[in-house]
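Per reviewer request, we include the raw input and output of the structure prediction for the construct analysed in the revised manuscript.
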Amino acid sequence: MDQFTPVSAALGGVLIGAAAVLFMALNGRIAGISGIAAGVLAPAAGDWGWRLAFLAGLVAAPFSVWLVAGDKQPFD
């Protein structure tokens, strides 16, 4: 039970929810990972860039947190 972090879990959920709402409001699309990844493999005209950026962000975000925080857990 030492790893239970309700504050960081709630903040993470709020960030994910806000990103999904913002993505839908700005693009009119639902942020479904499988659909976005499938669109990178078989892209429509002009649709490839944002999909690749979205997937790159999924990979880069945890790596950048690791670079900043190291082995420490946020809010530890």
